[in-house]
């Protein structure tokens, strides 16, 4: 999906898994992820975790972690292995009296119109299998397109690009 609004502004999406739920993505986080898009022909994939509030049935993404030296990245793969990702999630969780939680994962793809790979689906299934929470999965393409999906232990669904609401 391509957002009609300039990057850096908040986006509200309809959550395909939680009935009546919305997904609020803060513009600052979207902008920071967008700056990691694989715009050059040799740029490796990038990724991190999504952090924010669970306000049942809504998700509110307020922060993310970003690639670090210990991650394993190639042109077509990203393995989040640097301890800084989990450390940031834990730090924010503690500092907010357990209110800011691990909401999901983001990574980039070296394609203009990103779609989850079979490796992505397997990795996400492993995350979904160990939680009863709804998790958010974001892929940023090379240009301005995004793939955004939500899932729980029952399955995963893509956010309908037509169901973007103005905040
Ligand atoms: Zn991927």
TrEMBL record:
Coiled coil: none annotated. Keywords: Hydrolase, Metal-binding, Metalloprotease, Protease, Zinc. Pfam families: Prok-JAB (PF14464). GO terms for molecular function: metal ion binding; metallopeptidase activity. One of its GO terms (biological process) is proteolysis. The keyword GTP-binding does not apply. It comes from the Bacteria. Residues 29-148 form the JAB domain. This is JAB domain-containing protein. It comes from Dyella dinghuensis.
């Amino acid at each position: 999906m391509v957002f009609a609004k300039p990057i850096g502004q908040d986006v509200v999406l309809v959550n395909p898994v939680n009935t009546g739920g919305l997904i609020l993505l803060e513009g600052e986080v979207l902008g920071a992820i967008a700056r990691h898009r694989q715009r050059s022909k040799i740029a490796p994939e990038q990724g991190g975790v999504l952090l924010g509030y669970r306000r049942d049935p809504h998700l509110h993404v307020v922060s993310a972690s970003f690639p670090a030296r210990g991650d394993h990245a190639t042109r077509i793969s990203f393995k989040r292995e640097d301890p800084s990702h989990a450390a940031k999630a834990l730090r924010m969780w503690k500092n907010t009296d357990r209110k800011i939680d691990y909401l999901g994962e983001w990574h980039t793809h070296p394609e203009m119109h990103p779609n989850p790979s079979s490796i992505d689906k397997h990795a996400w299934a492993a995350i979904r299998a160990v939680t009863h929470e709804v998790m958010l999965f974001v892929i940023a393409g090379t240009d301005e397109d995004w793939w955004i999906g939500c899932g729980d232990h029952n399955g995963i669904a893509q956010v309908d690009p037509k169901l973007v609401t103005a905040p």
